[in-house]
Design a protein that fits this description.
372 residues; alpha/beta; Rossmann fold; seven-stranded mixed β-sheet
Length: 372
């Protein structure tokens, strides 16, 4: 069938909306008519070349939700008409990582930036002239209808609005999990969240869920500082210097229990600032990404050892998509997770470039493409 989607022809390179041909689902696959897709900064990293893709053209988008229109053989209980949320990280359920409760590190993720389906090396998207188009994360949610593996989707209840549920497929799981799982926020903690975009706003909510007494949001953009209180921040400041001073004031000079780095473009000095802001035996959690070849963090090795500090990477918030996506949506339904205020603006697919301009301008917590 003919579909439309946003692709890049090279990385770095701009997004362009084009017509494509989509194959029907094969065994263990399904076809989904998209309802909404969040506009994550990770996609923009491919556009700018911070995280380059090989094998272009590539159809981008990895945070979305929609309605099943076709299923292939062995559909594992998913039927046409079901509502699904895509998980940015697929889960096979039986590799070492899935079997040990770390499905965010599933071995299938090794193929999510390759382009073809990881099972057999074939493609589901093609240009009208027959050239294959890679699918980001095997899903490409910037396409109005997409074919994906069952390992990448979670069936959700039909009463949950999909234009909000789409956020749980990446930003919310990543930020909330960074606080709850990776930082292990405890009641009474003092937490710094560095960067208040979609992931940062979710980290603030995760810290609140964990019972933190002081949640200090840091962002140079005034609009984002103002919005931070909506998600549970107790304080919002423009710089890490201000955040560090506040954290020490709240803890008798010790420093924050944890600092979560959720900036749009990671730089080594940001990690160092977070490291300096935490107490002895505190934790820095890094979810942000920057240039793929950047190395080195200017931290004191003396402080690392003698203060017993912990520097923790966090992929997908160390969450289990098959369980945590449903759990987070249940929290949303119960009023304990705020997804509504995360969506600052909605866009059509043709406005995808404007959506990313707004992201760079700092005017969105999360922009969402809506298809219906």
């Amino acid at each position: 069938m003919q579909v439309r989607g946003a692709v890049i022809w090279e990385s770095p390179g701009p997004l362009e909306v084009v017509d494509m041909e989509l194959d029907d689902p094969r065994p263990d696959e399904l076809q989904v008519k998209m309802v909404a897709s969040g506009m994550c900064h990770s996609d923009d990293h491919h556009v700018t070349g911070d995280s380059p893709l090989t094998g272009c053209p590539f159809a981008l988008g990895h945070e979305g939700a929609g309605i099943v229109t076709k299923v292939g053989p062995n559909s594992k209980g998913i039927e046409e008409g079901d509502h699904v949320v895509f998980s940015a990280i697929p889960s096979c359920g039986h590799c070492r990582w899935c079997a040990s409760g770390m499905s965010n590190l599933c071995d299938l993720a090794a193929g999510i930036l390759a382009g073809p389906r990881w099972t057999d090396g074939t493609y589901r998207l093609h240009l009208p002239d027959g050239r294959p188009v890679g699918q980001l994360c095997g899903i490409s949610t910037f396409v109005d209808t997409t074919t994906a593996s069952l390992d990448s989707v979670i069936k959700v209840d039909k009463d949950i609005p999909l234009d909000k549920a789409c956020l749980v497929g990446c930003a919310v799981s990543t930020g909330w999990g960074a606080a709850v799982n990776s930082a292990d926020v405890q009641p009474g903690d003092t937490v710094i969240v560095m960067g208040v975009g979609g992931i940062g706003a979710s980290a603030v909510q995760g810290a609140r869920f964990g019972g933190a007494e002081n949640i200090i949001a840091v962002d140079p953009v005034a609009f984002k500082r103002e919005k931070a209180a909506t998600f549970g921040a107790t304080h919002a400041v423009a710089t890490m210097e201000e955040a560090t001073e506040l954290a020490r004031r709240f803890t008798n000079g010790q420093g924050a229990d944890s600092a979560i780095v959720t900036v749009g473009i990671l730089k080594s000095e940001y990690v160092a600032q977070a490291f300096s802001a935490i107490r002895k035996a505190g934790t820095v959690v890094v979810t942000a990404i920057g240039q793929h070849d950047a190395v080195g963090v200017p931290i004191s090795l003396h402080d690392l050892t003698l203060s017993q500090k912990r520097l923790q990477g966090s992929l997908f918030g160390a969450t289990n998509g098959n369980w945590d996506i449903k759990r987070l949506l249940n929290l949303y339904r119960a009023g304990s997770l705020n997804l509504d205020d995360m969506v600052t603006r909605t866009y059509t697919l043709d406005d995808v470039a404007q959506g990313y301009k707004d992201l760079h301008d700092g005017t969105n917590i999360r922009g969402v493409i809506t298809y219906q």
